[in-house]
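Researcher: We are triaging several targets before committing to wet-lab work. For this one, the compound of interest is zinc ion. I'm pasting the protein sequence and the ligand SMILES. What I need is the predicted three-dimensional arrangement of the protein with the ligand bound, expressed as C-alpha cells, so it can go straight into our comparison scripts without reformatting.
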Amino acid sequence: MSWRGVYHPPHSATKLNAELTLGDRHVHVTTEQGEHVWSLADMDVSVPVGSLPLVLTFPERDTFIPDESQSLADALGPYRKGKRLHWLEQHKLAILASLLVVVLLVVLLFSHGLPALSRGLVPLVPDEVPNQIGQKTRDALDEHMLLPTQLSEQTQDRVQQQFDGLVEQLPALPLKPSLVFRQWEGTANALALSDGTIIVTDALVALADTPEQLDSILLHEIGHLAHQHSLKSLIRATLLSTTVALLTGESTGLADNLLGGGVFLLTKGYSRDDEREADAYARQHMTTIYGDATAMKAMLKRIGKSNSSGEQLEWLSTHPGMKARIEAIQSAR
Ligand SMILES: [Zn+2]
C-alpha cells in the first residue's frame, strides 16, 4: 500500500512531494530526488491528536506527512501496537531494575546509612537531650528496679575517690561522669547512662577483689561514655523508627519509641561493636595506668565464675560474649 504526502529532508525547510510505501519490515519514501528506505523500528509515529495530521519521523529527523492521515494510521495500527508492546517489554526490565535498586538502597540505608548518620548527628544533638534522657532513665530505674545502696559511707567514699582518681588520669571525656551506688536485687552490674551517670551495684563492688579489678569495670563503663554509645544507639533507634514510619506510613509507634529510648537501651543493651569498643578503651587505659590488663581479665573471669555458680549476673546479659571478650584481652596482650 502507498500514500501520497509531503517529505521534509533533514535540517531543511524544503518540502518535497513524496510517496510512502509500507513493507513488512521497512518503509520506503520516494521523492523526485530518489528513494529512502528505513526499518520500521527506526520510525517514530506521532500520537494522533484531534484533526492534526499524522507525522512520521525518521532517524535523521526527516519527516513524512501524509495527505490523508486516517488510513495510514489504520495501516500502522498493528505496528504501533507492536511497538508499544516492545516498549513495555523493555521497560518491564527497567521497572524490575529500579525495584531492585530501591530494595538495595533500603538495605544499604539500614546497614550503612543509619550508623553513619547517627555518628554524624551526635555532635548536633544539644546536651539537654542526653541529660534529660539519662535523668529520666535513672528515675525509672530508681522507681522500678533499683534500691538505695547499703554500702557503708566509708566504702562509698573509698570507691568514689578511686573513681575520681581514675577519671583524672583519662583524656577529656565528652561529658562529665558521675558515680552512683545502688542495689539491684543482689546482682553485680554496672551501667552507663546517656547523661554521664555510672550506676554501680553493691554486689559488683563486693565482687571486686582489688581496686584494679573494680577500675577495669568502671573503665569499661567510662568507655561507653567516651564513645557516646548510648546517644548513638538512641539516635540509631530513632532514625530506624523514623525510616520505618516514612517507608510504611506507620507513625503511631514513633512517639512511643522516642520516649522509650532510654528503656530500649536498658533492655537491649549496647551492640557488640559498642561492647568491643568499650572493652578496648578499658584495656588500653588499664595498660596505661597499671602496666597491663591482667586485673580486667581476672575481673571478667570472676564475673563469669559467679555466673556459672548460679548467681544471677545482669552484667553478663547486658554485656554478652564473655568468653570471646576474655580471649580478646588475652590475644591483645
Ligand atoms: Zn558495656
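Researcher: Any quick observations?
Model: The two ends are 90 Å apart (CA to CA).
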